[in-house]
């Protein structure tokens, strides 16, 4: 089994990681830890984000004995679209994402990446508050 755990700057990652570890251990899954960011970031910022992801991999997944690889998706499209494309490319069996409450106006103006992922993904999506 393959699980994609996706997060961005707005996601409370601790709950997402906790659920991801639980699911991966239960199913003996391989984990893809994915973070999205915009293409206008400086090289130093991208390096820092990659370093943070590797730290999470070491501190959480390696410590638990879970096979994991990290990927920083530098998007040219919306984050939800990037995640759905990547999940399909890697043929993952489940996507785990964090969600947060947003006003109706916020959803209308900014859209909802979680909603896009839930509706467009080829596999089940587990949302975590």
Automatic annotation (TrEMBL):
Keywords: Coiled coil
Pfam families, alphabetized: Usp (PF00582)
CDD domains: USP-like (cd00293)
Listed SUPFAM superfamilies: Adenine nucleotide alpha hydrolases-like (SSF52402)
InterPro entries: Rossmann-like_a/b/a_fold, Universal_stress_UspA, UspA
Coiled coil regions in record: 39-66
Residue ranges annotated for the UspA domain, each copy included: 2-129
Family: Belongs to the universal stress protein A family.
UniProt name for this protein: Nucleotide-binding universal stress protein, UspA family
Organism per entry: Desulforhopalus singaporensis
Source lineage: Bacteria, Pseudomonadati, Thermodesulfobacteriota, Desulfobulbia, Desulfobulbales
